[in-house]
Write a structure and sequence with these properties.
With about 300 residues, this protein is an alpha/beta fold. It has nine helices and eight strands. The longest helix has about 30 residues.
Amino acid sequence: MEASQLEAQFATHLTRMVPEGSLVAAVSGGGDSVALLLLLTSTPRKVVVAHLDHSLRPESAQDALWVKALAERLGYPFESERLDVAKIAAERGENLEATARELRYGFLAKVAKKHQAQAILTAHTEDDQAETVLLQLVQGTGRGLGMRPKRGKVVRPLLELSRSTLRAYLRCKQQDWLEDVSNADTSLDRNFLRHEIFPRLKARFPQTQTALARFAAISQLDDEALDPLAEQLHSCCATGAGPARPTASRRCSRPRRVCAGGLCGRSSSTSSCAPRWAGWCSSSGPYRAKPLPSPKAGRCAGAMAPCF
């Protein structure tokens, strides 16, 4: 794909995701985030470059200076902060990667608030999405939703682009980037998948990455459709209303995938969803409700499942 074509597509996609307002771009200095920043230069949007120094490598301070110089060259204001993430994680007795993620998003939220930004842009790619989905599945989450393109203020406009596409774009623009040596550490789960598992999968199944990213997109659509129905079912059970037949608050947006998956048995994209859940809330009916296992934070804690 030509650089100009990629820039035009990115600008259109960004406008759909964040129609107006200033933006905070999370830039580590790696190839993906540098490509994001260069793509932003093809748009008229006001951008603030944000960089968190995790203090995990001796050269991290130099990385921050490199990103600052890039931001200044492109004419963008720069915000940075240095945190001893390893020390904080040890004091909390928490996982290093999870602590780094929490502190990073906290820093980005603070920058967004300071500059009254409409959104925080991260440079996660299709590669990252595929890695996330597989990691979630092998760790036993049972869902594999991956990363959402937009969640709150956080927007991921590059999820449909591969890392190789972005590297080709950078080479076309003659723009260098930084390589984080810690990305080669296969003692970390994500790096193990990236360097040990994915190359073998893609050698046998070339569409592995795209297929996993597509699976995440479909799963997210299903989740959006099913969550309101689960809330209705939970409400029915919690109030002891007896048998209920909740009606979906939306129409099927896609044929078969959501509605023919066992909920309403209809394949038309224009038919109304009317889940046949009669008896699910009855304590004496054929489908006595039982609590689901302890849900993750943010999920409906009292959701019910049929006893098949």
